[in-house]
Amino acid sequence: MGDQFNAEEVLKMAEQIEKNGQEFYRKASEAVDDFEVSRLLSDLAEWEKGHEALFASMRNDLSRDEKRQTAIDPYCEAALYLKAMADNHVFRQQTGESPSKFEEDKSTGEIIDLAIQFEKDSLLFFLGLERLVSPMLGKERVYDIIDEEIGHIAYLEKQRTRLNAR
Prior knowledge:
Blueprint: H1 7-31, H2 35-60, H3 64-67, H4 77-89, H5 100-104, H6 108-130, H7 139-164
Helix pairs in contact: 1-2, 1-4, 1-7, 2-7, 6-7
């Protein structure tokens, strides 16, 4: 793969990250005892599911230019590379970031902080990719993903304030 991505590739990574997040939050919701926190984590899993569908829809609406390959890939290795990138940048279970962390961190604040950190990691991942997508290959779509990730963080900040007030 070259050093540039198109919007289709970035959206595929976004879909995979949302899928990973959905599974992560679902498992985490089962790992905590606090009903309200469990419900929040379950809601986050559903939100990730919705974003996965949104990004899939965005990918289906791409123009031919936004799907144009940036490198020759006769062995179809790009798809494996993109999945590996998405799997290794956010919700990384192999590095100890697993739903069991929610069991260990019993306080609501720590749980929300961990969720916010995952969303910030996702945001930073896409901010880094934004530089690798040219305008004619769909840079605007990357901005759409970034806006969604910022929305995740804002939502979690509001939930932290609400849960801390109870």
